[in-house]
Amino acid sequence: MSTHLSWKAKEATVGELAERAGVATSALRFYEREGLIHSRRTSGNQRRYSRDTLRRVAFIRASQRLGMPLAAIREVLGLLPDNRTPTREDWARVSACWRADLDERIRLMQQLRDNLTDCIGCGCLSIDVCALANPYDRLGDEGPGARRLAQPRPCPGGED
Prior knowledge:
This protein has 160 residues and is mainly alpha-helical. It has helices spanning 14-21, 25-33, 53-65, 70-77, 88-115, 130-133, 147-150; strands at residues 11-12, 40-41, 47-50. The protein has a domain at 11-98: Multidrug-efflux Transporter Regulator, Chain: A, Domain 2 (Orthogonal Bundle). It has a three-stranded antiparallel sheet with strand order 1-3-2. Strand 2 and strand 3 (47-50) form a beta hairpin. Helix 1 (14-21) crosses helix 2 (25-33).
């Protein structure tokens, strides 16, 4: 059975919101339990979500795809008003919170992409190049894990 959220509707049922947002109703209930979205209850104890919840769910899903933890998502959603539809300024404030973190994630992903075929400093010594790039596991003295990916490399010229 297909439900349709009318563009005129001020509120949505859990089924309407789930269908429009492209998520399972269980995901909406989970987000609500986690304090990421809110609903009101009808006299029959059915959930009703304000229309702006659709934007919040889209934000949650996009944030999860970026690998953001639920605690961080909850924190920035806490900056948005509960009793009114968020404005562009509200969303700009939220996006500014993650700009530096996202820039760092992008830098690390580019570093991973560019260095994945080279030694990443894991200390495995299993590839013939490891004996040349990391003889006697020198990088192991710096700590556990993939050392070359864990530490930011200085930019040419010595500046970060």
